[in-house]
Amino acid sequence: MNRNQSFGALALTTLALLLSACNNKKTEMTSTTDTTTTTTTTTTEGGAASGSSAGSTNPDTLVIQESADIPTLDPGTTYDTGSGQVVENLYETLLTYQGNSLTELAPLLATEWKEENGGKTYRFTLREGVKFHSGNDFKCADAEYTFRRNLVTNTSDSGNWFISESLLGTASNANDDKSITWAKIEGAVKCDGETLVFTLPKADPAFLSKLAYIGQAIVDSEHAKKIGEWDGTEATWKEAVGKDLTGSPLAQNPSGTGAYKLLKKDASAVTAVAFDDYWGDKPSIKNVIIQKVPEQAARLQAFQKGDADMVETGGRPIIESQLKGKPGIAVVDDLPDTSAFGITMNQAIKGDVVGSGKLDGAGIPANFFSDVNVRRGFVAAFDVPQYIQEVQNGKGETRNFLLPDTFPGYNKDLEAPKFDLEAAKSAFQKAWGGQVWDKGFTLNVSYRANSIPAQTGMEMLKKNIESLNPKFKVNLVAKEWSQLIKDGNEGKEAMVMTGWAPDYADPDNFVHTFYSSEGYYQPRINFKDEQIDAWINEARTTTDTDRRNELYTNIAKRAMDQAYFIMMPSAPGILAHRDALGGISQDTFNPMISFGTGTYWKNLTKS
């Protein structure tokens, strides 16, 4: 397992969502379901049916319809929003986010914590009187087991790379990094009585944010061992390294401390019921049903009829054209955008995409984009304001950094790159000592097939570049997403429109990913900027907020000067729900929570 593999899983799902107006980020599944209405059966916690009418008219039942199934219910491998929306309501983490804030953390299974030893030691006081769904009491041993299990397994399908990076100093597991020993794992997380103690090899300012990620939710260790999970001992730990947990015993039979417990999971639906022994405020809605309905038309019809409280809509164009203003439907707009998108410019292109491989008008050299003036020309030739109008219906703002402007570390006072064809022309005239302007080039660019935003953006770029010089040619090719990801990761694409969504609310999750010579996007961009690397590494180890902000501003300025990416604009979120569903608003929406409402099920109401 390596960091790039786990990053790739998230990047793929993220881009599939945000570059398509009509496709959800999850893989669409086939189904024989073609009905447009839904009859639901509510249940008591004991599992007895209490037959009722359609969910949207029943205040005790929340009905959600989506296009795909739920891959796993094991927190140790949850790394997709489909799974996360369920897992975060069955399980709980030590910390969570305070309201809609991305910077303030609130207690959950921990009641307080103390930082010691210059940020290399954390001591957590754990909540008392908490029960798991199995009836077992929550103890420090459960938290110790959970984190050790995550460090041991740490598969490419999980987000455990970033907790391993904090606690062991490496994103890899013991199969790929032989420096990992049981002693290191045991020393990184242990109980001191009922106090949980983390020991880090160096300070990590993002550590607390990482603990709020649902993949670090606390599992019931006694229950887990009983049903056949790793026994938590040194004698067996090597057998569990890298073990696939997607269909694990815990995925089939979860036991968390959350406000809801699993009732049933099959190919067509996941059903959860309120947990009677939940330690916190009891949920208002007793039953939650997530149904798999692949056909968008069927989901939209069910939603408009009131047979579902929320559905996977297909995004802003569908909501604005088909749902907004319809009876019984409420729309919440201008939600914070926590993703960042850009167009990469590969400085060491592999494969035959370079054409002739020369500056002769029939191709480009493999290192075409290593000239800063080539990059500056492309950046100045992309009309971001036009993209906002044509693709995003006028919603969104230009950006100066591949970091969401909702995140700490983003400096809104820096001016974003401007669309300026004269500046683009001037840059191209200087590029490669004047050869680019004199000889021209043919550039082959791929975009994701069936993605209207990606196609439109690339067509805009092509038109503007070719308008500068008749010797400039840009050929656009539609590619299946899986192939585009594969070729991009292998460095075979000259330019790719791509992006990132956060694992945890810290700027490092974006800045290192995009700009570090060791980051995920390195194979697609192939640049190394020693000054930026030094600033990134310093920001990763200092807990001084002001200094971190200064460093990120420095990185943003230099990255814009060097034109490493064409930066796409922000894209404010939008969601629709039945107006009988309460608890959804801009004030309560936190984009770091997986479920579409931006809050937990326990905080929702129905009338």
Automatic annotation (TrEMBL):
<feature type="compositionally biased region" description="Low complexity">
    <location>
        <begin position="30"/>
        <end position="57"/>
    </location>
</feature>
<feature type="signal peptide">
    <location>
        <begin position="1"/>
        <end position="21"/>
    </location>
</feature>
<feature type="domain" description="Solute-binding protein family 5">
    <location>
        <begin position="104"/>
        <end position="521"/>
    </location>
</feature>
<protein>
    <submittedName>
        <fullName>ABC transporter substrate-binding protein</fullName>
    </submittedName>
</protein>
<dbReference type="InterPro" id="IPR023765">
    <property type="entry name" value="SBP_5_CS"/>
</dbReference>
<feature type="region of interest" description="Disordered">
    <location>
        <begin position="28"/>
        <end position="60"/>
    </location>
</feature>
<dbReference type="InterPro" id="IPR030678">
    <property type="entry name" value="Peptide/Ni-bd"/>
</dbReference>
<keyword id="KW-0732">Signal</keyword>
<dbReference type="InterPro" id="IPR039424">
    <property type="entry name" value="SBP_5"/>
</dbReference>
<dbReference type="InterPro" id="IPR000914">
    <property type="entry name" value="SBP_5_dom"/>
</dbReference>
<dbReference type="Pfam" id="PF00496">
    <property type="entry name" value="SBP_bac_5"/>
</dbReference>
<comment type="similarity">
    <text>Belongs to the bacterial solute-binding protein 5 family.</text>
</comment>
